[in-house]
Amino acid sequence: MNIVCVGAGSMAESMIHGWINKRIMKAENIAVMNKSDLERLENLKDEYGVNIVQKERVELRDADFILLAMKPKDVEAALTDIKDNLSGNAVILSVVAGVSIETIQRHVGNLPVARAMPNTSAKVGKSATGVAWSKWVTLEQQHDLRNLLSSIGSVTVVDESQLDAVTAVAGSGPAYIYYFAEAMTEAAVANGLSPADAKRLVRQTFAGASDMLQHEDFAVLRKKVTSPNGTTAAGIAALERNDFKGIIGECVKDAASRSQALGREFK
Ligand SMILES: NC(=O)C1=CN([C@@H]2O[C@H](COP(=O)(O)OP(=O)(O)OC[C@H]3O[C@@H](n4cnc5c(N)ncnc54)[C@H](O)[C@@H]3O)[C@@H](O)[C@H]2O)C=CC1
Ligand SMILES: O=C(O)[C@@H]1CCC=N1
After folding, report:
1. Domain residue ranges of the chain, discontinuous segments joined by +
2. What global pTM score does this model have?
3. Which residues contact residue 88 at a Cβ distance below 8 angstroms, ignoring those fewer than 6 apart?
4. Domain 173-261 grouped into CATH 3.40.50.12780
5. Mean pLDDT of 211-238
6. What is the mean pLDDT of residues 67-75?
7. What's the pLDDT at 267?
8. Best substitution site from 5, 6, 10, 11 to test ligand 1's pocket, by max atoms within 8 Å of Cβ?
């Protein structure tokens, strides 16, 4: 199986890292191309052993899967640029936020197109990925796509209309968690801990809690920490007073709306 990554930024790198780490792909079967940054491609070649798409672009013609991993505004130019080099057998796997299967097919014709929304935890094999595909994707190709995506984490097959929600929760989600970790660290320092100790404590608290989340119901876990009239109850009361759930609700709603807007903007 051959894959060409069109767009070689942080998302493509996370996926390449996951595929090679899990030995689902050999580096020699992966090729990368981008808009203009040859140094970036050379770096990926040095780091992972992947190929760089050559001027003649045989790699594109031989590809079973084309990973589309550029910003939404660059999709049209990228597809216009590669469409004459694609074989009819290639499946396009887009991770671009918002841009619909219909829009992609308008540029390349009735090629099989799948849209996935992974996240950067692909790098450590722990992406939470949602995927939807068009009717042109055969059962065998669906099977290969599941394999490719499950090598970087969990896979949830959804209807394309649900991908905006997947993007808002799982695609963007790691950033909310990092933001929460930053806020906890700042609060720890404000309450007298050294920055180094604060960071170590917060990092391990997140790591331990995220392990626990795998095994028990979220609310049950929370209740087990929360002694009546204790410290956690006081902390949670502050979250409730400040409408923490409302804030998170708005955060996810705005991210999903932005995903829809990107789809309209780059139709
Ligand atoms: N970073 C993240 O956490 C996630 C990103 N995504 C999606 O992945 C896509 C890529 O995001 P990043 O990797 O973060 O962006 P990035 O900015 O790190 O990389 C974009 C890459 O696209 C290339 N590119 C631009 N125009 C091109 C063209 N015409 N032909 C070929 N290559 C071209 C750039 O040279 C660059 O290598 C975005 O659409 C984003 O919505 C999806 C899930 C998570
Ligand atoms: O922020 C973005 O638009 C992309 C999509 C999901 C994560 N990063």
Report:
1. 3-158, 173-261
2. 0.94
3. 111
4. no
5. 98
6. 96
7. 85
8. 11
